[in-house]
Specification:
The structure is a single chain. The chain is about 5% helix and about 35% strand. By secondary structure, the protein is mainly beta. Strands 1-2-4-5-9 form a 5-stranded antiparallel β-sheet, with no helix packed on it. The protein has a 4-stranded antiparallel β-sheet with strand order 3-11-10-7, with no helix packed on it.
Length: about 170
């Protein structure tokens, strides 16, 4: 069930970079792009129809910082950990439409998945809220990332699997 999504993309040069989320000395010296999205775009499990996402992505030359805030998780989710990952495609009516996890094409051969993908696992609090942050030492190539998906289970460190896709928010990386 598609939901209205609000997105904003802000490009900041050196002078304004200090205002950007996740601003660091390294990001302040480079041209950054900040993306702010509220969603989700699609919900695939009716039990999660009350979920709302807020995502802030700050991209630098060789860096991607992401902050994911989630509210409206059902009471039964309290204390549970959910996998959340950047996926290659934008959200669609079918859970699989967002494709596989986005990966760093320049990752060293044999690198663990954790180094090649962006994982944002969240743990639901008693009030149905959760928050996560992640930093990747790479920037997704144009068209190589398109959404953040929240899954039903924690991320398996060896396989990257995290169960069924519950909600998806399209992010214009």
């Amino acid at each position: 069930m598609p939901l209205p999504v609000r997105a904003a993309v802000v490009t900041l040069a050196t002078a304004g970079a200090a205002l950007a989320p996740f601003s660091t000395p390294a990001l302040a010296r480079e041209h950054t792009k900040t993306i702010i999205v509220e969603g989700p775009s699609n919900v695939y499990d009716a039990a999660y129809s009350g979920v709302r996402t807020s995502i802030v992505v700050t991209e630098g030359k060789n860096r991607t910082d992401i902050r994911l805030r989630v509210s409206g998780l059902p009471a039964a989710a309290a204390g549970k950990t959910f996998g959340a990952h950047v996926h290659r495609k934008k959200c669609g009516p079918q859970a699989a439409d967002s494709g596989p996890h986005a990966q760093n094409p320049k990752a060293r051969p044999g690198a663990p998945l954790r180094e090649k993908e962006i994982w944002l696992d969240i743990k639901a609090g008693k009030k149905g809220e959760a928050e996560s942050r992640a930093t990747a030492r790479w920037r997704a190539a144009k068209g190589a990332a398109g959404s953040i998906v929240i899954h039903a289970a924690p991320t398996n460190a060896k396989t990257g699997d995290a169960g069924a896709r519950l909600v998806c928010t399209t992010v214009p990386f």
